[in-house]
Amino acid sequence: MIVGKSVLDYGCGMGDQAMALSLLGAKSVTGYDPYPRFPTTGPSGVTFTASLPTEKFDIVLSSSSLEHFADPERDGHNDGTYKPEPRDSVGGAVVLA
Question: What is the mean predicted confidence (pLDDT) over 6-33?
Fold first, then answer.
């Protein structure tokens, strides 16, 4: 499902899952968390940011993270700045676990 895809790990925490997704074949992985605990650098193809990304991704994954955001409005969940949109050709996927 992720091989060759661009992935956003929304609420990446320490970045372990983002790095694992890269090892499993994702084309690129962006780990986002407003409370940065992730490494300052990652393996090739993995970037980390505390700023909400604006680019489109093939897959947006958020695993065991939403309950850790103390203020969803401030942390970017409901402020309208991030809106998953279907991709033009294949269609995107949003995975919440």
Answer: 92
Alpha-carbon gap, residue 18 to 13, rounded angstroms:
9
> How many C-beta atoms lie closer than 10 Å to residue 37's C-beta?
11
pTM: 0.73
Both tokens assigned to 3:
């091989």
- DSSP codes of every residue in 3-49: TT-EEEEET-TTSHHHHHHHHTT-SEEEEE-SS--S-SS-STTEEEE
The Cα 66–Cα 44 span in angstroms is: 27
Query: Can you tell me the distance from the alpha carbon of 11 to that of 4, in angstroms, rounded to the nearest whole number?
Result: 21
Six token digits for residue 90: 């294949």
Give the Cα separation of 29 and 59 in Å (integer). Answer: 10
Q: How many CB atoms lie within 10 A of CB 39?
A: 15
